[in-house]
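User: Can you write out an input/output pair for a complex, sequences first and structure second?

Assistant: Here is one pair. Inputs:
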Amino acid sequence: MADHNPFPGENNTGHFWDDNIRELNNPPPKWWMIALWVSIAWFVLYGILYPMYPVLPWQSQEGGGFTKGVLGWTSIKEFEQGMEQVAEVRAQYETQIAAMTPEQILDDPGLTQYTLASAKVLFGDYCAACHGSGGQGNPGYPVLADDDWLYGGSMAKIVESITNGRKGAMTAHKDILSEAEVDQLSQFTVSLADGGEGSEAGWKLFNDKGCTACHGQQANGILAELPDGSIVTVGAANLTDSIWRFEPGGYESAKHTILYGVNQPGVEQTRDAVMPAFGGSAGGLEGKLESDQIKKLAVYVHSLGGGQ
Amino acid sequence: MNETPSRGSGAAMDELYAEAHHWEVNTGGETIHAKRMPGKWRRIKWLASSVWLIFFLGPYLRWNGSQAVLFDIPNRKYHLFGVTVLPQDFWMLSLLLLFFAILLAVVTALVGRAYCGYFCFQTVWTDVFTWIEEKLEGSPPQRRKLDKAPLDASKVRIKVLKHAIWLLIGFFTGFSFVAWFYGAGPLWRDFFVGDANVAVYASVALFTLGTYLLAGWLREQVCFWLCPYARIQGVMLDKTTVVPTYDEARGEPRGRLQKGQSSAERTVGDCVDCNQCVAVCPTGVDIRNGQQEGCITCGLCIDACDAVMDKVGKPRGLIRYASLDEVEGKPVKPMLMRARVWVYTGILALALVGIMYGLSSLEAIEVKVLHERAPLFVQLSDGSVQNKYTLKVLNKSGQDLTVRVSAESSAPMTLLGAEEPLFARSGEVTPMIVFVKIKRSDLPGETLPVTFHATTTLSDNTEIAAERESAFFGPSR
């Protein structure tokens, strides 16, 4: 056919249909062909080096039905290597923290910075559900950012609270006190919380009914101050400040607490005040945190704003 | 399907065929070997290109004992003649980018693609590469001949030498680029003994290969198919833009010079159809077809045409820098009467003022205050309200500093946590947690402005202060 090409000089292949339809030879540019072959080579090479081809189900072996690649790369391996690198960076801080008390950590600005960043994650995982993301508390769960502590705000006390947990206790007075007495005591606590002195009759009733046994002679929750400056409490609330243990606070809240007590078995409507143990031997969350983690959390809670 | 077109459409088709030879698509199938001719614009082009010597020599410039301009990416510090710019000052970079983007726009609007023709690295490197090619392989006809010649020892020697020099230029392009970021001294020390990091070797390799491919092989194809600026410049040009223009009224109809014919006897236009303007064009366009996307306005066709006009004894300027308005004989508006010029100049000036303000007001320390949100405030047992703040002190000076922090507000207040001065390492952000306590009775409302001050003393005893206003929050009444 090419011998009698009726369309010379237009670079056709010599294939004609219907006299005038012909196939031209217009190959793609050379650079395009090179790019195509390089891409194909890349595809093949990649398939050899990396996991790629899914293998048909009946051919699948143990460990997943796909070709593994000769480099042995897997995403989980890469992830684990990354985690090892992170652990390496952290190791220098972690070894120092392990050998220090929480107070010593707080004295070192660099370590404190590391500890706060690290404990923020722990706080989010274990504490924030009840105490709020920034320790701002929730109804029924104490604020950790203020300076009002039921069990003490020293580092040692905070470690103790996290490790062993806490359980409040207060007798239900609905069958012990008369309605008038409950009313009088409720008003007495409200007046104290508002910054008042408290009536003489109120103080008398407070003493007579044995409230001082837990809330202390000054109704501030402190039973005794030791010579070394530390205080003895049983976890009873300080009634002389404006911070209420049970929300929303005020007359009704106080009355409710006096009538039904705290954590009283068999008493309906009793107040619930339990902090689980995160490191000690009791409670359902036993052994959840290691001592270094508790140390970090203690530093974190202490730095929220009210540490003593 | 076998029908031939009717006679009526024949004339229209002839017209289409007549112009068909103008419409050729340059896809790089054939290498453009442009002729080199001396001339005014050729000289200007070399002068303009020499700006790029700064790129090669700049890293060796010293300032107060260290590299004058060093972009230290691993440490996020950018040294410019003794001034250290940190990422926090990068709003100035956006102004710098704005400045250059508008500069490009204004230059394009006034004189077309002057950047493309004289300054663009693609043009300049291609120019140098083809200059080397000419030195080794000879004039364009000799080069075409060599390309077609069978591979023998002398061809291999020439070609290997050419590509080796190209690659060497590519290598030094990459090497010089990296020197701006790695430091010229350390780079010479580390590079050849394998002590530099992977990023350095990868960058140099990419630049070597990129320069070799783009300037050696792709050349004008980059301007045609790859460059975004070439695509958008069409909307920046107008009829007042000064670009290399063929004076059609004077040149057409073009006709070849007849032997023995005096210029007075010539009945056609001044264009002698010598095609020299096409021969010298680095992108292979024919300027006589008018302004087109392939024209990078380098002016080399002007040199070529002027040389020919001199030879045939006609006035210069058949091809010249002129606006379409000028060539069409319309009145030319003076540059300062054009609104576009003023708007562009205004933006340029604003960007420059912003950069100058930024560079002159770089403080050695900067303090940011983050107010704690959860909880917004805490009521303390003594009846006061406490807010928590995280101060972030950025030390931009070249030395470690001891920073004292204080705070003030209109109400009596206690600042806790700032009793000890803060140790701020050079070039780093150091956080500090502080608390502000205010008696509830002293709070005038739910919020109260609080100003934090950070002061420090540099080693030369200059006092530096920075302040930042934040707010104090209390309970609603």
